[in-house]
Amino acid sequence: MAKISPSILSSDFSKLGEEIRKIEEGGADFVHLDVMDGIFVPNITFGPPVIKEIRSITDIPFDVHLMIDRPERYIEEFVEAGADIITVHEESTIHLHRTIQNIKNCGKKAGISLNPSTPLENIEYVLEDIDMVLIMTVNPGFGGQSFIPAMERKIKHLRKIIDDRDLAIEIEVDGGIKLDNAKEVTDWGADILVAGSDIFKADNIVERVRLFKEV
């Protein structure tokens, strides 16, 4: 069964506490926190102070996705704010291995994210060091985009690599994930699904999370 990581990027921030309690009641496995700096992606969201405040209202593991330039500068701050998994983009840092080791040395799980056009070969030599690969199935920066069909091959290829090498890595998929394609993406090999608008814009958030879990 795939795990569900609802992205609060699509939530109503004026009711954030209430909406987080709803996904908690629905059985969400993580809270997905998209951190954007307006440099690596063309959007700005929030940083460690907001994450720290959210941490005070829930015990759900925090899946923190850093869409920021040179993320190695801020790893400790996100750890202190309450991150459980920290995912950085392969494209955003020169010293990827060093950044991974910094996350692991802080006692947190490390993930690597790849933009749609970035090949899997770029992370060939760090796979043994990470806990998760986040495949972006839209171009990062904004919620509500449509799934890029070519990413099916990428997910399946990564699943084969992980299985052939018997690696303890989870595949997370983010972008255009909806109830009507969730099972398909899971069948391709995804372990964790990130969904934003299809959960938080639903009439019943609790039931929507439950339906994702059932699928």
Structural write-up:
Keywords: Carbohydrate metabolism, Cobalt, Isomerase, Manganese, Metal-binding, Zinc. It is a single chain. The chain is α/β, with parallel strands linked by helices. It has helices spanning 16-26, 48-55, 75-81, 96-105, 151-164, 179-188, 197-200, 205-214; strands at 3-6, 31-36, 62-67, 85-89, 109-114, 132-136, 170-174, 192-195. β2 (31-36), α2 and β3 form a beta-alpha-beta unit. It starts with a strand and ends with a helix. The mean pLDDT is 96.
CATH topology: TIM Barrel
Order of helices and strands: EHEHEHEHEEHEHEHH
Within the largest sheet, what's the order of strands? Answer: 1-8-7-6-5-4-3-2
Q: Span between N and C termini?
A: 8 Å
Family: Belongs to the ribulose-phosphate 3-epimerase family.
Active site: 34 (proton acceptor), 174 (proton donor)
GO molecular function, one term: metal ion binding
Protein name: Ribulose-phosphate 3-epimerase
